[in-house]
Amino acid sequence: MAITFFLHSCSSLFFQKGYKLCFMVLILTALFVPDSNANAENCWWPIQVKSYYGIYETKTKKSGKASSTLQGPKLEEWLPPTAAARPYTIGISVPHIKDSYWVAVNYGIIQEAKRLGVGIKMREAGGYNNLDKQIKQVEELIRSNVDGIILGSISYTGTDAIITKTVKSNIPIVEVINDINAPDITAKALVSFYDMGYYAGEFLAEHAEDSGKNDLRILFLPGPQASGWASDTLDGFNDAMQYFPGRVDIVAVKWGDTGRNKQSELIRNAMKDNPDIDYIVGNAVAAEVAPEILKESGKDKKTAVVSTYIIPALYDKIKTGKVIAAPSDLTVFQGRMAVDMLVRILNGKKAGTDFPFRSGPFIPTITPENIKSYPYEGLFGPRDYKPVFKLEPKK
């Protein structure tokens, strides 16, 4: 196995607080690059994570942030379970597999399931507009006698009722990627998309200041409005931009599903109304399609693109400078961690006590200057990977 290590310096603005801390934390993380002699899925840990323990309550819960009843963040190393107590079958429900972001999540889930010998039954709802379909798919997974479910919820509150029903029938649910309210959720493997938006804004503010810009006109495309995570990125971005010394004008905020056609339509329409834009900022699909639209209109030299998260399709665009930055939530690792959490629960461990109730990897910001430190395969898995929807448990 070829191992690439990178050092990531934490932001001087510490974890959602909005105040300055005068120190830098160095985080050593291993990103694996599989080769012909390697068995990568068996040695991907430890990774550095930000964890929360204790009792989860939602009375004061705010989208994008950990519940105030949890204790943390605790900065620690993630070490996975060594084995499943028996050959469990895990149900998976995610918003879609139509972009490479969720394909990378699938890769992490499948690789960790193989390592632990558990089975997988995966469903995808086809898009963020299909909440009813996702709920029906969860009900279908319950009827198929899965031992537990990993859920990437379409909605911040829309799956609360089905989660309560499922957990009360003794089927635990671990949320992955998208934060949710869900008073009865069993555990969460995710990062804060507020933080993702904050780091995108922090980068942009520094880039604009270094470029000598005093007045900024920004088009922002968060993603699906009901998702929870999309509005979190906007909130984080807005808070970070308060530290920019000049004037900031977000000329338009355009919401929509993360399909390429929809995001292209939103960008084109917004640019008709706002022809002079300094930065396009938004979800990774918007950032993926924006450089070509800017080139068509002759504005690729004037308008820069920043994403609030990274997907495989953005990797080469960052490498060439067509996109100037994207925070990474290390989706492969989140998928692995969700499997680890659910196996621990099924093995009889308690989230919040025996292991974190909520945990996710540290967030690096990927730029053209540092991208060589973040190999593609370590972030997303093999370039030719195809999603797997069914995996039999090892008997």
Automatic annotation (TrEMBL):
Gene Ontology terms, MF aspect: carbohydrate binding
A GO cellular component annotation in the UniProt record: cell envelope
Pfam families recorded: Peripla_BP_4
Subcellular location, record wording: Cell envelope
Top-rank lineage group of the source organism: Bacteria
InterPro entries for the chain: Peripla_BP_I (IPR028082), SBP_2_dom (IPR025997)
Occurrences of domain Periplasmic binding protein (ranges): 90-350
Keyword annotations from UniProtKB, A to Z: Signal
Signal sequence bounds: 1-40
CDD domains from the UniProt entry: PBP1_TorT-like
NCBIfam families the UniProt entry points to: PRK10936.1
Assigned protein family: Belongs to the bacterial solute-binding protein 2 family.
Protein name: Periplasmic binding protein/LacI transcriptional regulator
Lineage, opening ranks: Bacteria, Pseudomonadati, Thermodesulfobacteriota, Desulfovibrionia, Desulfovibrionales
